[in-house]
Amino acid sequence: MRKLIALFMLFGMLFAPMITKAQEETESEAEATEEAAPVQAAPAPTPVMTDDDLVAEEQSFHQVIKDKFIEGDPTYMTPVLLCLILGLAVALERIVTLNLSTTNTKKLLAKVESALEEGGIEAAKDVTKGTRGPVASIFTQGLMRYSEGIEMVEKSIIAYGSVEMGRLEKGLVWISLFISLAPMLGFMGTVIGMIGAFDSIEAAGDISPSLVAGGIKIALLTTVAGLIVAIILQLFYNYCVAKIDGIVNDMEDASISLVDILVKHKLTR
User: Fold this and answer.
1) Model-level pTM greater than 0.85?
2) Treating both helix axes as pointing N-terminal to C-terminal, what angle do 74-101 and 51-71 enclose, rounded to 10 degrees?
3) Domain ranges of the chain
4) Which of the residues 46, 60, 62, 148 has an alpha carbon 20 to 30 A from that of 166?
5) HSE of 181 in the Cβ direction (CA atoms, 13 Å)?
6) What is the DSSP string of 167-213?
7) Where does the UniProt annotation place the signal sequence (predicted)?
8) What confidence tier does 206 reach under pLDDT thresholds 50, 70, 90?
């Protein structure tokens, strides 16, 4: 036992310097690695836009529009602005009216057919009178002529369909007028601005860039304003026309289906 303990002590004395040296080398390498590692800079804080910044940006946009309106001369810019306001008013009224005039024709035809089978013509009239839209109005006129024959029903539907189409297109002529009028007013401001520029040149007796620039600026601003108004109103006009075309197609398809239903009802009586 004593020999074994002495042997362990001998090994410890022999390998202790080596272990200590290895530990020192490991510690020195770790310190060198820490020194060599670059220090990462903290990320810069992301700028946050506050409500005040957004309000300032919005105010600057409105201020730019206001400045351009004044620079273009309110005498010529005001009529263009009125065309935009009046045209948008008519367009929005037409859009609301056309959306309210849209009818689910398949559902209406199913109700009319069911009412004819259960209660006859009078029940079908009650269904169409209680439904909103031009399609239901045409159905009502056709059902009212049912006693006079199918031919009179068809003629009544065609005649009253033209009346309903005229009601759907009501107001579009005003939108078309403002679409044409806005660029004309803008071009008129252009011509007047150029005339003013040449008058200034004539009065000064010299071609000065500052004199010419003022008239040309008014001319360009009024032209741009008129074109922008025309583009905006043209989009609304095309939407209304497309909506009317869709309603008219539904009216024609539904009218043909109604006549077929009435013929079927008359044959099965």
Assistant:
1) no
2) 120
3) 76-269
4) 148
5) 18
6) HHTTTHHHHHHHHHHHHHHHHHHHHHHHHHHHHHHHHHTS--HHHHH
7) 1-22
8) low
